Amino acid sequence: MSAFLPLPVLASAAAHCQPVSLGDWRNLLAVIWDFLSLSLFSLGGGNTLLSEYHQMAVDQYCWLNSRQFADLYAIAEAAPGPSSMLVGLLGMGAAIREGPLWGLVSGVGAEVAILLPSTVVMVVASISWNRWRDSAWRVAFERGLGPITLGILFAVGLKILRISDHDTPAYAVSAVVCVLMLRSRIPPLWFMAVAALLGGLGLVNR
Amino acid sequence: MGAPPSHRELFLGMQQVALSSFGGGLSAWSERIVVEERRWLNQAEFLTGLTVARLFPGPNQVNMAVYIGSRFHGLSGALIAIAGLLLIPFSLLLLLGLAYYQLHMLPAVDRLLAGVITASAGMAISMGFKLVGAYSRDPMALLLAAVSFLAMTVFHVRLIPLVLVLGPLAMAWYWPRQR
């Protein structure tokens, strides 16, 4: 357990602000409430929440620095399964200072909190869909929220780009990946693998 | 159509979806297993499920599991389907997370991740471009998108107030009119 501590880089992450400890139950409740309330705003498959996660984990609660946030986002994208499981990694970061076991508990807790409200709404929606598939509310919701989601996705993309890339080669790789994502059917894992290689060879830095 | 699946079958079926899609293409695998192999839903029902899953808040694949599970066993079916879908990938991700928090100071790990994040940033920025074509003939949609983009990037408006203010205005504008 104690071999996990202290983590020098995590310690330096706290240089600009003090990481909020979940040992105090009021902090714990505040964090759980944040995830629960964000759940119902995960439009567009959940990617709209990325900049809120950054705001929480880096600026508000100081569990991570921007660089670590970018790392975790990349890991969640590369790993199999829905990339929205990033929340588990952020939750883990919130408690990893207390040891790996607390990291795991916190990670599972964060994931449950972010999924619970949207799941309950989705259950109700699935069961009663036939009743209001043609209702004006459904039509207006779908048409109205779509463009807002679009704008948020651009803002989120820009934010991720800003915290990830810091030199010209890095921006170039991102631009190429973006174009290939839109124009080719190459599985995303390949982009990750090639980019990891470029990083390993020292061709892209940060 | 086959017999309605038990909780156990739901769990195992969603686990099969999760395992098959290691490497990508979750939605396609989900369709193959749920529609073609196990015959829990027909094609039309599956497509309706995708529509509902995308419309409502929550990760699309998780919402799809909820749609499938709740159809047969309500809330408990939904929860068991999510568990089947996420158990193995989420456990794996948590292990990766532990490894990351332990090893990220190593220069080699840092260099590899410095590469990977450039690709993931490219993928993040592609999300908006993927959708923008659908709205290119609708000036009001583009205006709403531009306002939300500027509100977040320039004025640092948080997500929840943004959606709570702009959402109802947009819904009013797009409210279906009687013909």
Describe it.
The complex is a heterodimer of chains A (206) and B (179). Chain A has a domain at 2-135. Chain A has 9 helices and no strands. Chain A has helices spanning 8-13, 25-39, 50-60, 66-78, 86-95, 100-132, 136-164, 168-183, 188-200. By secondary structure, chain B is an all-alpha fold. Chain B contains 7 helices and no strands. Chain B has helices at residues 7-20, 26-37, 43-55, 60-103, 107-132, 139-153, 159-173. The longest helix of chain B is centred in the middle third of the chain and has 44 residues, at 60-103. Chains A and B meet through α1, α2, α3, α4 and α5 of A and α3, α4, α5, α6 and α7 of B.
How many strand units of chain A? 0
Query: What structural class results from the helix and strand content of chain B?
Result: mainly alpha
Total E-strand runs of chain B? 0
Shape of chain B: flat
Point out poorly predicted stretches of chain A: 1-9
Overall geometry of chain A = globular
CA distance, first residue to last residue of chain A:
31 Å
Oligomer: heterodimer
Q: What structural class do helix, strand and pairing data of chain A support? A: mainly alpha
Largest interface: A-B, 115 and 100 residues
| Main sheet attributes: strand count, strand direction, barrel closure of chain A | none
Q: What's the order of the H and E elements of chain B?
A: HHHHHHH
